[in-house]
Automatic annotation (TrEMBL):
Keyword vocabulary terms for this entry: Glycoprotein, Hydrolase, Protease, Signal
GO biological process: proteolysis
Protein name: Lysosomal Pro-X carboxypeptidase
Pfam families recorded: Peptidase_S28 (PF05577)
Organism whose genome encodes this protein: Salix udensis
Assigned protein family: Belongs to the peptidase S28 family.
PANTHER family: ALPHA_BETA-HYDROLASES SUPERFAMILY PROTEIN, PROTEASE S28 PRO-X CARBOXYPEPTIDASE-RELATED
InterPro entries linked to this entry: AB_hydrolase_fold, Peptidase_S28, Ser_carbopepase_S28_SKS
GO MF term set: dipeptidyl-peptidase activity; serine-type exopeptidase activity
């Protein structure tokens, strides 16, 4: 927060929140640490997950003289322009729920129309305020929509095999747990009641909440900063296909740019990331100019389709797990971790150990010349 509490105040201060600035900050930090710790010859490997994973991969490309390698977990570096199908993110969210239970997927898919019909009735919003245990009376359907949408998307992202509290405290395999709630209702129950109960798992697994702040809720994860980045450089077009459990929708750059202008007074640069870091035909570019990067992705993660899913060279490796969720390899190890997750981490350690061994072997040879 370079300007303290005023950092998020305007486009002038937020302008420093961008990927190139972040990479440069890390470069200066690493050089400073090495100098201050008298460890100029020590090798450095950068680790990152999600946006941090993108930074890790890009750092290795931009600053190869500072980091000998990068582990980029769940890094959607191909989610830009038209490299990845725009509907892929929500298609994966939907697939996660469909695999857990077809009925669950269909209840969620049908709930949006039910919500719309109820909100159009005279006392509809009052009834929704009651059903969703809102702390204050609701003024629009949008807040209910966003509340549910966020719960389903984030739960798919963090569908971890063990209990975790990354976004919220959640049980192991929370998508399955949500679907169990939906499927547990008697056949006469409304879709609205079912989806509320399922989303409550995400917002209230600890059962501490007496009511929910559906409107003007707290920005617990600092997502306002991401909104700024999405409105400037991180332009990732997304749409919902007919296969999605969310209502079908397209992506309009014009509408998106107008919203960004209204919110931040800034205009998006839709092709900047692929200009600055590349993306199209990434395999050709990285084969020629990159090395020592692990891209790890779990196919349960909606962001995985924008990641690197195939080996590019002998030193740019893709590790893909069928049951993995968003940077699951970076979660704390627990006694309940499944064997596939332990194996993934073993592979990562083995590859990184190889980079370090190679670095010291090269250093020794240079010193002997």
């Amino acid at each position: 927060m370079p300007f303290g509490n005023k950092s998020y105040k305007s486009a002038e201060t937020l302008g420093y929140l961008n990927s190139q600035q972040a990479l440069a900050d890390f470069a200066i930090l690493i050089r400073s640490l090495k100098h201050n710790l008298s460890s100029e010859a020590s090798p450095v490997v950068v680790f990152g997950g999600s946006y941090g994973g993108m930074l890790a991969a890009w750092f290795r490309l931009k600053y190869p003289h500072i980091a000998i390698g990068a582990l980029a977990s769940s890094a959607p570096i191909l989610q830009f322009d038209d490299i990845t199908p725009w509907s892929s993110f929500y298609d994966v969210v939907s697939q996660d729920f469909k695999e857990a239970s077809l009925n669950c997927y269909e209840v969620i898919k049908g709930s949006w129309a039910e919500l719309e019909a109820l909100s159009a009735q005279k006392e509809g919003l009052t009834e929704l305020s009651r059903t969703f245990r809102a702390c204050q009376d609701l003024h629009s359907l949008d807040s209910v929509w966003d509340w549910l949408w966020s719960a389903f998307v984030y739960t798919a992202m963090v569908n971890y095999p063990t209990e975790a509290n990354f976004m919220m405290p959640l049980p192991a395999y929370p998508v399955q747990a949500m679907c169990k709630i939906i499927d547990g209702f008697p056949s006469g129950a409304s879709k609205i009641t079912r989806v509320f109960a399922a989303a409550s798992l995400y917002y209230n697994y600890s059962r501490a909440e007496k009511c929910f702040k559906l409107e003007h809720g707290p920005d617990a994860h600092g997502l306002h900063g991401w909104d700024w980045q999405a409105c400037t450089e991180m332009v990732m077009p997304m749409s919902c296909s007919q296969e999605s459990m969310f209502p079908p929708s397209g992506f309009s750059y014009k509408e998106f740019a107008e919203d960004c202008m209204k919110t931040f007074g800034a205009k998006p640069r839709p092709h900047w990331i692929t200009t600055e870091f590349g993306g199209k035909r990434i395999d050709r570019a990285l084969k020629r100019s990159g090395g020592n990067i692990i891209f790890s992705n779990g196919m349960q993660d909606p962001w995985s389709r924008g990641g690197v899913l195939k080996n590019i060279s002998s030193t740019i490796i893709a590790l893909v797990t069928e049951k993995g969720a968003h940077h699951v390899d970076f979660r704390f190890a627990t006694k309940d971790d499944p064997e596939w997750l332990k194996e993934l981490r073993r592979k990562e350690v083995e590859i990184i150990q190889g980079w370090i061994d190679q670095y010291y072997a090269d250093l020794k040879r240079l010193n002997n010349e």
